[in-house]
Amino acid sequence: MCLAVPGQVMSIAERDGTLMADVDFGGVRKDVCLQYVPDATVGEYVVVHVGFAIQRLDEESALQTLANFEQLGILEEEFGAK
Amino acid sequence: MKYLDEFSDPVLARRLLDQIHAVTTRPWAMMEVCGGQTHSIIRHGIDQLLPDGIELIHGPGCPVCVTPLEMIDRALAIASRPGVIFCSFGDMLRVPGSGRDLFTVKSQGADVRVVYSPLDALEIAKSHPDREVVFFGIGFETTAPANAMTVHQARRLGIRNFSLLVSHVLVPPAIAAIMESPSCRVQAFLAAGHVCSVMGTDQYPALAAKYGVPIVVTGFEPLDILEGIRQTVVLLEAGRAEVGNAYPRAVPPAGNLPARAMLEDVFEVADRTWRGIGMIPGSGWRLSERYREFDAEERFAVGEIHTDESPLCRAGEVLQGHIKPHECAVFGKECTPRNPLGATMVSSEGACAAYYAYRRLELVSL
Amino acid sequence: MTTVDFAAWSCPVPLRDTPAVVMGHGGGGAMSAELVEQLFLPAFGASPDDLGDSAVVTAGGARLAFSTDSYVVKPMFFPGGSIGDLAVNGTVNDLAMSGATPLYLSTAFILQEGTDLAVVGRIAQAMGLAAAAAGVRLVTGDTKVVDSASGDGVFVTTAGIGLVAPGVEIGPRRARPGDVVLVSGDIGVHGIAVMSCRDGLSFGTSVLSDTAPLAGLVAAMLGSGGDVRVLRDPTRGGVAASLNEIARASGVGVSLAERDLPVPAAVRDACSLLGLDPLQVANEGNLIAIVAPGAADEVLATMRAHPLGAGARVIGTCVADHPGMVVARTALGGTRVISLPIGEQLPRIC
Fold this sequence. Notes:
The complex is a heterotrimer. Chain B has helices at about 10-25, 35-45, 45-50, 65, 70-80, 100-105, 120-125, 145-155, 170-180, 195-200, 205-210, 220-235, 255-265, 295-300, 315-320, 350-360, 360-365, and strands at about 30-35, 55-60, 85-90, 110-115, 130-140, 160-170, 190, 215-220, 245, 265-275, 280-285. Chain B is an alpha/beta fold. Chain B is globular. The mean pLDDT of chain B is about 90. Mean pLDDT of chain C is about 90; it is low at about 1-15.
């Protein structure tokens, strides 16, 4: 369920009393409702589903997860070498 | 795209796979609840690369698949009314009701439109004040905030010619229903990441404890799914029925508080029938009293609908993980994506359709 | 284990289950194929063997390629082109896929009353420029007007003829195991450009339609002397539909490597957003070529030397296994079947 993809907030504006953002998905631009992630700032990444940002993307956590994956391999190699 | 490509890296995928092979000592059966994950698993061939003993059971997390036949027939009846513009996500157009689908109704003159977002439907309502615009509000907790906000906006802006046909379903009651089934073989769950982005993880510790199963919140890219599986195997091997989070970049423990508050305001919990499974108490949402005037079911009294599922279709057993799609006798024969007997063959995230699209090769040689 | 009857899959269910025409019948996938094979061919007394992008007929001692196509694209103007460009390039390319040198086109317009004449003018201008660029002449035509309830702006039909040189034998049944599958450039560009400005979907993108006449590229490829066996321009239904049609017509399997597919980042990202498979998205300016194993290097070098083939690359091979099926090796090392798309491409949320 629930195809949701991360995109970068390029600009924020209020329309009809609703917080909207122009979000960039690697070159594809889409109008996105930011009402559920009101504290997101320009430059940040948000997770978007059917035109709504449903969560901020925690970039630090993303990098940490990737670093953990790298580590897994290295630990295993060291372990294997012993 | 940033934060998608990095999580599809084949080299890191290999490392995670090696780890999964290293920590697995016996067979385990785990269910990925979400159809988006099923699609990703089959699409990337992840199931083919796991240790032989790791079985992925494909769960009922496909909103298109579990939307009951009565609801689809109701949608078809409303869409056929003169003056109605019926808007839907693309996924729902090919789902068969009793004898026809939204495509057929469209070909018979109904005004059926595919939209990307429910807000697009609201825009259509604004620009066609003389027409009734109905949006088919399906989906799990991920999609519900979008539909909730749209109804909220309709009320706030006084757009009276908009209504929502609600068929929302909830994940935790479905997990409980699956575990209560006497023939349940599921030993652990990969929980749907984007549902948890909205709802958080606080409902899961109680489920994990009650049923003695690990539950790991899992994302959708190949590395996310592999990490979800790895964490699940680690918990299973250690005999720990705990909740893990393999998707922390998009899932804070509390979820999205403004979205949860909006859901609380717009919807109330209701019993819901799941196609192929049956009625699960408290497993859905309907519009709350404050928003009832926007309920398409109330606005368009369609009357009682009696439906009959194809007696040949075993989608219910597939959705509960009792059989794999190809173990159904009509799979690929009477039932194909072109001529589906059940909804699991329609949606590209339905387990049957995913098997049909991507797995025919092995099935032929089995 | 359950054995699955493969024959049941390749034999589509009859039309009776959709008594009326639905949009999917025009989508270029399985439903379109059924309509042609089960309704039109029997009525015309024609054989499925005749189905290529264009027919090759003999008249007065010359071998002529002959093709026709109708254009109903919405919106009529999109980033990188218009219905006018498509109407010329589409038919030119259908002729080129038979190895022909396209020569003459006819055109017919169905105009909805009330359509702005300036719009018709822009379309006609685009057609004139495209014809000049492709080296063909628009030599005959027709115009009809329908009332405002019956049409939708401008519908354009073109037909074209071209000459097939002696010795040129291109056809969908000629692929053999061992043959190499080439693509001339980026995949999925046109479909994404059009979708980006469609009602209810609109999104911003830098992607421009790739609409272009491919006859020059084909002439260069044939001039290289390598054995080019099948040519196809993967329009509606995308690369997935074209390769499935070739696999079925030739009775070979097609094996692809996903990581070799030239999908531009902007197309991949738009597909991620909308839940589409780039292999099923339409193209209007690239081609798929199946060439004999020994000719691949030479043909590829020739393609790369041509402006419309600069991004050409090998994407797979024809194999004796799984005849009639297209199978891709995923980046992670798994496999998946690439299916013939069913009907229309629909964005999905799940």
